[in-house]
Amino acid sequence: MRIQKTLIALALICAAFGAQAHKQWILPSSTFVENDKEAWVTVDAAISEGLFDIDFVPLKLDGLTITGPDGATLQPENVMNGKLRNAFDVKMAKNGTYKIALVNQNVFASWKVNGEMKRWRGSEAALAKEVPANAEDVKVTRTNTRIETFVTANTPSDGVLKPTGSGLELVPVTNPTELRAGEKATWRFLLDGKPAANLPFSLIPGGVRYRGTLNEIRHVTDAKGEITFTIPAAGMYMATASWPAQAKPEPGKQPEMPARRVMYSATVEVLPE
Question: How is the chain split into domains, by residue range?
């Protein structure tokens, strides 16, 4: 059973590196709340085939961090674990912009012992204990995944937009809760705190099931890791990027897993003009 679960996990991660048929996302009920008394948002978390559709399995909330405009860490309220999605509420007691992020690091390893292939998934700390001394053909891939969104109560602020210096991060020059259709926005991507130059990323609007087409918007950062762009229509979007770029598969060969894989996605709301 343990081996079977590991194989399933490896298959899912390989799928994520490839076509990304199933997408992981967190979706706030709103990204900008104006309320003089109490500001709240409800956040759904799921893995789905259709973007923002609740049609597959819930996204685990392991690694969830909610950061307030003053830098304080908040706890989710009214957590619900469902069959197809998980959900929670965020009370925004202070004015400003909040960051809601799921950050995870995993290690995937494979090796042979007496000609038999072994596969394992776990933490960095446990890796050395799991790989036996007589292991051969050891291959290790480390993954860093950040899934996040931003919400504002009454007045935008930039405290939570500062980078942590770890993994692939979006450092918005334009506050992500102030995006409007037809207006220019500037974003900056960093990899381990340094400019992520020439990084491809895409924006996909929700509602694919009603359009029948993906309508993916693709961009590439400049030498400073920055890009200025315009989003043509209002709605909820998912921004995604990954590093390194995936190598083109060779016919008849399994794709080689890189030694390190870093993935980023964010849900942002674009308001009407």
Answer: 2-271
